[in-house]
Amino acid sequence: MDWQKQIVDAAKRIEPFIVKTPIFSTKFIYPKHNIELKFEHLQHTGSFKPRGAFNSLLSAQVPKSGVVAASGGNHGAAVAFAATTLGHPAHIFVPKIAGKTKIDLIKNTGAELTIVEGAYANALVAAEKFEQDTGAMQVHAFDSIETTCGQGTLMHEWERQGLEADTILIAVGGGGLIAGSLAWLQERRKVVAVEPIKSSALASALEVGKPIDVDVSGIASNALGAKKAGKICFELAKEQGILALTIKDEDIALAQILLWNKLRQFVEPAAATALAALTSGAYVPKENEKVAVLICGGNPPSNPFD
After folding, report:
1. C-alpha count within 13 angstroms, C-beta hemisphere, residue 203
2. pLDDT score for 303
3. What's the whole-number mean pLDDT along residues 208-227?
4. pLDDT class of 302 with cuts at 50, 70, 90
5. Residue 243 contacts by C-beta under 8 Å, 6 or more apart in sequence?
6. Domains along the chain?
């Protein structure tokens, strides 16, 4: 499969509907290294997810019954935003742990919203039943070619903006974002997967050689809490032999605070997870290694302005 061609096509397809998010370099968040950052939390709905959502909808014939999606929050908001922007009905299923910020964000798009008990996996079961009952089009959060290619446009865009890094640290939930990045980069740069230790679907899959169910909890579980890594992500990660790190919740929280204190960027824990690999010492760059960190989401569980 020609991933790069598909990602270039996706970039052209979604360009009218997304934000070209800013990049930033700083020496103030990690000693002795200049770190490149991409502020994808400034994308529509506060995460990278609209890239995959718009590509999925613009690549398909959407039925009259509209679209359905299960989400920890950010994907649901993105699908709701993309669907209503394009004039399609949308029904989103989220778990309670999505948090007030993300739930309100989805409500404000005008989409139909159902809140379910449990975690993302429970929302996915409900969404699949809705799909069977209504014929609505399912937009998967991470494990589809269209979603993967849409997320891959982020790395395509970053390189066009002048990315210099040898190594890129990316937070992982189900794996759509890192899968898109791996599909685009094709081992031209080192990619490091970073997960919370309490929600480590990809690291667990790579350890045993196949995607397996994992327990999900912790500070970033409403965004990175996939019970099982996606097949596309797993195959690309295995094929390219990437490094997968797991990070403690307290280190993620400290990285989240650091982003606010040093850069005045208020992000959700998931968006600080990749940075936490550096600040916790889980990943130590070589002396002349150029490192980049993707800041992926800006929707913390509770709104500080409420």
Report:
1. 19
2. 53
3. 90
4. low
5. 190, 192, 193, 283
6. 3-48+144-295 (3.40.50.1100), 50-138 (3.40.50.1100)
The tens digit of pLDDT for each residue in 51-96 reads 999 999 999 999 999 999 988 788 899 999 999 999 999 999 988 8
**Placement of tokens 């991470």 in the chain:** 142
User: Helix, strand or coil for residue 283?
Assistant: coil
Q: So what's the pLDDT on residue 305?
A: 46
Locate 84 and state its tokens.
Answer: 């209503």
Token digits of residue 2: 């020609």
pTM assigned to the model: 0.93
For residues 102 and 123, is the Cβ–Cβ distance under 8 A?
no
- Residue 213's SS3 state is coil
SS3 content of the chain, % helix, strand, coil (to 5): 45, 15, 35
Beta bridge partners of 68: 91, 138
Whether 30 and 279 have beta carbons less than 8 Å apart is answered as: yes
- DSSP single-letter state for residue 297: B
